[in-house]
Specification:
metal-binding; globular; 56% helix; single chain; mainly alpha; four-stranded parallel beta sheet; 8 strands
Amino acid sequence: MRESLRDRCREVADRLDHDHPLTKDEMEQVARRMLEEADLPEGLLGWTMVNISSAFWRNQLSTVPPERRLFLLPHCLKHAEGCPADYDQFGMNCKQCGACSIADFRSVAEDMGYRVLVAEGSPVVLKIIVGGYVDAVVGVACLNVLEKAIDKVLLAGIPCMAVPLLSSDCRNTKVDESWVEEMIRTPYVPAATQTRSYVHLMRAAGSLFGRDTLHRLAPPMRGIGLPDPNSPLIAAPRRDSVSLEAGVNGAVERLNGEVPDYSDDAIRPEHLEGVDPIAATEAIAYDFLARGGKHSRPFITLAAYDAMMGGEATCGEGESKAAAIPDAVRRAALSIETFHKASLVHDDIEDDDAYRYGQPAVHHRFGVASAINVGDYMIGLGYRLLSRNMLGDDVEAATRVDLLDSLAAAHVRLSEGQGAELLWRDAKDRRLQPIDALKIYALKTSPAFEAALYSGVRMAGDAEGLVEPIRRFSRNLGVAFQIINDLNDWIGDDSNKLSAGADVIAGRPTLLWALALQHLDADDQETLLQIAADDCEMSVSERLSTAGRLYRKAGVFDLSLQLVDKHQARAEQVADELESEPLRRLFYFLVDTVLERPEMPTPNTIQLSIAAPVA
């Protein structure tokens, strides 16, 4: 049954347009049509989507040499009893004892030159790809993991193939072993890439924060900037590419057989002993600027510039085209991230957050006053990147003025939104209207998207006619993104280091809170307001339980998702109206990647063994 259905998936995939990667929604539509035509049940939808995707990418994968491929294996394929391998944050350090199929698969893959990682659903996969270590991924996992992890990889245009496990028991599971070996042995056939990909632009954005590139684009004024990897300024060993988070490097080093300790390599006061005090601020700022983050804002700037120049960096010669982007554009992209990092330092102080990027927050390491000053320094650095001529720049004065004006406007609006949030948080009356919450979102989140898009478009030439579409698109994208952030707060969001319900405990004004007040009766409203009162005697768990119960009673989660759909539709409408096909494609890509809904409960699936045969 599975063989027959996989063959049909390949036939369908061969008929698809391979110029652009499929989104998850597009893949779902194709899979549904295929199941309807074959009179097969919807319970096979996820399995079919994975196999259509694998078939779509198999020819593209063959153009990637094995040494540039990553092979992912789940730890649950091991024998649960008596397995000698250790499992840590970087995956399973599999000792090839031959006791399970992991060793067999791994041996074949490593003989061919693959990088191998035993860590099911590892969140570092995309970052490993963006870091430039691999250009394609093959893997084995259960269906729900594949549907979550592969979606982002597909959107980036990364060749990716997978074989689903035959069960999701997470213990002594099985897989179609012949399929896995066939996938691993996909032959290398040198050829030009066919499907467009944003991965080279993603890598270009990440590379801005490597020590040499960062120092070239933003020369340190005091001669310190980021310490040399061999400098005694940092006691712990530093990574070669500071743009990657410690977990990524750990995983990649595990692939190479070495795992250095990067758990505590942020600059601390003791590291600055003997350093000129005037230069210390620069050292702290450059260190924070270079570490952590997704670099989505500089990516947007580079991608917008490339789109206006024809979108060549997403084509077969994407690597060389991305490398040819002028330094002036890179400085504009870097300035966007510099402003963002400055706001994070200040936000952490205002919210008294203890950690950022897995390290103690700047104000916890150096004190509040010094952290405020570091944030101010990065604001100045951001403006300096755009306001003056540097070697290799060829930017007209009018363009510089337009960029500075756009960034200044974004900076002011961000401060207004943050100020409104703080005033509400500290007010005695915690009543909030949904429209007011949405206004705060539009001020806090949308300006960064707008400034990043406008900077890239303006650096490519005259942006006349695109200012208003960029503003409308960014407003709706930013608002929808912030609503999703609210929803993630209630299911826990590892990427933002949130625990469920943190916004309620921190007293932040959210759309969920406003919608609950709007749809609850008077008694329930008073109960909800009491949770946020300074004299509330409830424990944290009681407050969260009460808030969750009232939120569900008011139906705020469904209402919020409806608003996400509304703002997404508005953003897509703006994209529909764009004349530039590469820019339109970028807008759609941003919608698909930024507006990732929280995971919803998965429906029951039908076992393939009892499904009707293919007609």
